[in-house]
Amino acid sequence: MPDNLGQEEYELLARLAHRYYVDGRTQEELSREFGLSRPKVQRLLERARWTGVVDIHVEAPPWLHLDLEAQLRGAFGLADAIVSPARADPQAQREEVARCAARYLERRLRDGYVVAVSHGRDTGEVPRFFRPARRLGCTFVSAMGGSPRVDAPTNPNEICRAFAERAGGRAVSLFAPAYVESAEMRDRLLAQDAVAEALRVAAAASMALVGIGGTDDDCTMVRSGCFSAEELARLRRWGAVGDVLGNYVDARGRVIASPESGRLIGLSIDDLRRIETVIAVVSEAEKPKAILGVLRAGVVDVLILDEGNARAVLGATGEDRGSGTTRGAGTARVTRRWEAPRAGTKEVVGSTTVR
User: CA-to-CA distance for 68 and 94, rounded, in angstroms?
Assistant: First the structure.
């Protein structure tokens, strides 16, 4: 008998629990049978669980990582976290994560939803496995510009079209580069109705599906020609660990406002914060620092990733607990700004401003 229960209470809890869990009686039926109010029955069933009278065992498939998912939700205030099985081959790993993301979208999407979509190999893989059970009147809109050097499966306009075809919805394309030559050209493009309207639709989305980019020399931004290796190296010197929609952050989740950010055509970090559900999909093995930085930026609600990255991110959190913010714990408006080097100074001159 549990130490904190008297014999009479122990017997009552056992009878109630047996009738409820084994016999399948409803709480309403137990209320009439035992002469108790329904709220009282509910409280007693909860007490039966907490005192150990009821021990619930879930026989989960061995490839599920429910403990890792719970730890990620708790550590970062996430609405949900899904950890895919580990695969040695990078493409096989990307497909596993994409399957998980596709299943999540199939469960959560509703008629009329607007989904803002980023570029990238991870997000580009998701439509292959997306098979909703019924036609969905959803709109999929590009959340950032593309690049002619980006393969079709990773270009946001193509990803949106693939989703729309499978959902029976529509795609809204953003016909602009992800990065242009100057801030002045960016402003001129943003003044065009077609570009402004696509970004307006994306900013008002019900949901966003985004990838998390790294800062290695083989990242999408370099391969697509958006950045040179030298520009990316400069971002790394400024502390950049990763990006979401081309917005670079440091290890604490602070946005790095560099000359490159003034050339970006896409949603900002603040735009993402205003979208109700932001789903981040990531699989590459070199991404733990990038994932952690983006999580601390406070923009992600649902994280879908592989086991290796999940363990690495949680490990890094344990080593550096308390720095940065999460979506569930509030949002820090901290921006790391780049300044042009003065004569006789090094390039690494900057200030951190808090807004």
Answer: 19
Residue type for position 281 = V
Residue type, 161: R
Which class is 66-354 in CATH?
alpha beta
Phi then psi dihedrals of residue 126, to 5 deg? -65, -45
Q: Would you say the CATH fold of 66-354 matches that of 7-50?
A: no
DSSP 8-class letter at 278: E
CATH number of the 7-50 domain = 1.10.10.10
Tokens of 63: 């490839």
Q: Which residue has the tokens 């199939």?
A: 106
pLDDT in tens, the chain (355 residues): 666 788 888 989 999 999 999 899 999 999 999 999 999 999 999 999 999 899 887 777 777 888 999 999 999 999 999 999 999 999 999 999 999 999 999 999 999 999 999 998 999 999 999 999 999 999 999 999 887 665 557 889 999 999 999 999 999 999 988 878 788 888 899 899 989 999 999 999 999 999 999 887 667 776 666 777 787 788 888 899 999 998 999 999 999 887 777 888 999 999 999 999 999 999 988 899 999 999 999 999 999 999 999 999 999 887 665 444 455 443 333 444 444 333 333 333 233 332 2
d(CA 285, CA 345): 37
Give residue limits of the domains in the chain.
Answer: 7-50, 66-354
Ramachandran angles phi, psi of 168, nearest 5°: 70, 25
